[in-house]
């Protein structure tokens, strides 16, 4: 009996600008095996075209159209079979199928993210509703109705991979826009501010969210490190007030907003630029869970809510807005109101810098392979497209390095080239 087997992670190759972050060489799964090989070109390119498919095609193949094979594409009679020396003898080292199977199994997990370890995600699209060619040459904002596919990963921040979805914690809200000009990663949170404005503080702060180095107890049993940090870093007060307010425990990912937090720059075709902050506001309405009821929900409450909403056709959506500010306005804002556009603990007053709608985000497709499509997806603020640039925000500048660097550690095998980082 033939069975399907997932392709080996080490046989991946890159196909730019396709919807999915991971692309595999899938010679071990193919339709009409004998007819395919019979009609195959004797040229290398013809052979490759007959043997290779991108991830999406592989993922959507029906089990009836697949055969069980080793990672190099050779059909194998049964997934449980092994080679032995005699009926009850020892196993043979020459049994490539068994060695290959165990080797893949030993490597089928990756380290969890140091931050944002617990997460959920889905796929969808962005549609431009109000073009802004006066502000940027970015193609996705160039014309009304322009669409591009995207993927979103939501997450808690401090918790481990198995932690509770209803913890009082900021939520990550990372969007990967797959535009005609490349991938743009908008890596934000559900709060418009953060605990710090100095990048060197970030590792120290995150350590306060983790287990105590001596007792190995989490924050639920020993929160001393967390409050010790906050008491010595008063710039965190704005974020603390948000975190311990009504929105501190969102009722699932569908009922929260997203914010860039950082200041970015938009550049138009004349080379003129403005500062910008990006907001994406939920169209499902803001909902939150009272602290006393948080433990009444499933540990995977947000994942269940997102997945089953999409499955039944109730597609969540957000409206994308921007605030803009000229360099001169930024100087005046500092001189008159002491608001620094590069300070992650500040917000821009919306009466002075009103929101401008530019588009909408819709999630309409669940992942079929969570590990491949969500766990291994890699976001970085350094993934930019023409017309969008980073500002001098020091925390953003540090993230431009830190995000791709952590993914090099987390998901890039030592035997793979640097260019094989998943995007």
From TrEMBL:
GO cellular component terms, semicolon-separated: mitochondrion; peroxisome
Nuclease recorded as keyword: no
Cofactor(s) required for function per UniProt: heme
Listed PROSITE patterns: CATALASE_1, CATALASE_2, CATALASE_3
Alphabetically ordered keywords of this record: Alkaloid metabolism, Heme, Hydrogen peroxide, Iron, Metal-binding, Oxidoreductase, Peroxidase
Originating gene: CAT1_1
Job description of the protein: Catalyzes the degradation of hydrogen peroxide (H(2)O(2)) generated by peroxisomal oxidases to water and oxygen, thereby protecting cells from the toxic effects of hydrogen peroxide.
Family annotation (SMART domains): Catalase
Binding-site residues, heme: 403
UniProt-recorded name of the protein: Catalase A, variant 2
Tagged with keyword Heme: yes
Family: Belongs to the catalase family.
Transmembrane segments: none
GO biological process, one term: response to hydrogen peroxide
């Amino acid at each position: 009996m033939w069975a399907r087997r997932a392709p080996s992670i080490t046989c991946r190759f890159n196909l730019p600008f396709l919807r999915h972050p991971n692309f595999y060489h899938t010679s071990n799964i193919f339709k009409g095996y004998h007819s395919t090989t019979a009609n195959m070109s004797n040229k290398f390119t013809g052979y490759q075209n007959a043997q290779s498919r991108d991830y999406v095609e592989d993922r959507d193949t029906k089990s009836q159209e697949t055969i069980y094979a080793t990672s190099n594409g050779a059909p194998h009679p049964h997934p449980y079979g092994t080679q032995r020396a005699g009926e009850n003898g020892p196993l043979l080292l020459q049994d490539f199928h068994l060695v290959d199977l165990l080797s893949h199994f030993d490597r089928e997990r990756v380290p969890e993210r140091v931050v944002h370890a617990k997460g959920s995600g889905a796929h969808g699209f962005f549609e431009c509703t109000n073009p802004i060619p006066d502000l940027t040459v970015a193609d996705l904002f160039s014309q009304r109705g322009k669409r591009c596919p995207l993927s979103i990963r939501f997450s808690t921040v401090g918790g481990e991979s198995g932690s509770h979805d209803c913890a009082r914690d900021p939520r990550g809200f990372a969007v990967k826009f797959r535009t005609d000009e490349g991938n743009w990663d908008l890596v934000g949170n559900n709060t418009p501010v953060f605990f710090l404005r100095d990048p060197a503080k970030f590792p120290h702060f995150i350590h306060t969210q983790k287990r105590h180095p001596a007792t190995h107890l989490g924050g639920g049993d020993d929160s001393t490190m967390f409050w010790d940090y906050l008491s010595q870093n008063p710039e965190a007060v704005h974020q603390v007030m948000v975190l311990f307010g009504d929105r501190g425990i969102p009722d699932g990912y569908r009922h929260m907003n997203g914010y860039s937090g950082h200041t970015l720059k938009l550049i138009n075709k004349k080379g003129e630029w403005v500062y910008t902050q990006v907001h994406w506001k939920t169209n499902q309405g803001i909902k939150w869970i009272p602290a006393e009821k948080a433990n009444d929900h499933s540990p995977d409450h947000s994942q269940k809510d997102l997945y089953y909403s999409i499955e039944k056709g109730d597609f969540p959506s957000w409206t994308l807005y921007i605030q803009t500010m000229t360099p001169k306005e930024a100087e005046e804002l500092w001189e008159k109101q002491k608001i620094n556009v590069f300070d992650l603990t500040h917000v821009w007053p919306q009466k002075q810098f009103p929101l401008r709608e530019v588009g909408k985000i819709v999630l309409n497709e669940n992942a079929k392979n969570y590990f491949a499509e969500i766990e291994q997806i890699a976001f970085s603020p350094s993934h930019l497209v023409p017309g969008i640039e980073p500002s001098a925000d020091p925390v953003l500048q540090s993230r431009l390095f830190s995000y791709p660097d952590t993914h090099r550690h987390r998901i890039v095998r030592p035997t793979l080239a640097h260019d094989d980082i998943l995007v």
